[in-house]
Amino acid sequence: MKKLLSIVLLVVLSLSILVGCSKEPAEVAEIAEVEKIKIGVSPDPHAKLVSLVVDDLKKEGIEVEIVEFTDYITPNLSLSDGDLDANFFQHEPYFNDFKTKEKLDLTVLGKIHVEPMAFYSAKYKSIDEIPNGATIAIPNDTVNGGRALLLLEANGIIELKDGVGYEANEKTDIIHNPKNLKFQALEAAFLPSSLDSVDGAIINGNYALEGGLNPVKDGILIEGGESPYANLIAVRSGEESQDRFIKLLKALQSDKVKKYIEDNYDGAVVPAF
């Protein structure tokens, strides 16, 4: 009897050990951490492009949270403050100008696409129809305002001081203005809605898309294919070599994203990779 009891106890003890061991992998799986990226974006096309690769990155153990912004200031400040891990909304001249002025330690992860800037009008169909003394709305930030003036100069509408580049200012740097155009500097997001109250407006590609405008189809003037204004992903300096960001960049520079851009934007967005 004692011998039988000893055998039973031995069997029970062995089963307990086996059950305990069988739980270990599950417990390990439960504590495995998923890498996360909280990325700030403009709604279109940036949010759409990131949404395309969310599931692909999830398969690689990276969870992406998309936060939409409708201005050009908050995303960089939020990235610098640590509220975001990355952002995707701006081109490099604007990025360099902003981070220098605000003293932000941010860096470029990679470039994704170009959104050609264009001149639009709800009243006129060609630049020749724009009357003397017409009011033209342009972005009110330094870089995009200068970019708008460069578009007009490239098409012979105005002449700027030599060497001013994208920092050109409508108040101080126009040296020849044969149509006596007046310029109204507005927050870039408001430019599409300004078309009914001005004679024309020069609008960034993302805000044009949000306003139902396509630069190729609706623009009177449009930037050429050599535009240096490729939209980029920005991260905090020193973090660009992290595995999660390398995978994010690879996903957004994939053939899948390139094909989506080419198939859906009719030239309003152009791949830059």
Description:
With 273 residues, the chain is an alpha/beta fold. The protein contains nine helices and 13 strands. The strands form three sheets. It has a six-stranded mixed β-sheet, with helices on both faces. It has a five-stranded mixed β-sheet with strand order 9-6-10-5-11. Strands 7-8 form a two-stranded antiparallel sheet. β1, α2 and β2 form a beta-alpha-beta unit. α2 (43-59) packs across α8. The chain is globular. Mean pLDDT is 90; it is low at 1-31.
**Strand percentage, roughly?**
15-25%
Query: Separation of termini?
Result: 80 Å
According to DSSP, the number of beta strands is 13
Contiguous helical run count: 9
Computed structural class: alpha/beta
**Unreliable stretches covering 5 or more consecutive residues:** 1-31
Q: Describe the sheet with the most strands.
A: 6 strands, mixed
Rg over alpha carbons:
27 Å
Give the overall average pLDDT: 90
Which properties best describe this structure?
five-stranded mixed sheet; about 40% helix; alpha/beta; about 270 residues
Set out the fold topology.
Blueprint: H1 2-31, E1 35-41, H2 43-59, E2 62-68, H3 74-81, E3 86-91, H4 92-102, E4 106-114, E5 118-120, E6 135-139, H5 142-154, E7 159-160, E8 174-176, E9 182-186, E10 200-203, H6 205-210, H7 215-218, E11 221-222, E12 230-236, H8 243-252, H9 255-264, E13 270-271
Parallel strand pairs: 1-2, 1-3, 6-9, 6-10
Antiparallel strand pairs: 3-12, 4-12, 4-13, 5-10, 5-11, 7-8
Helix pairs in contact: 2-8
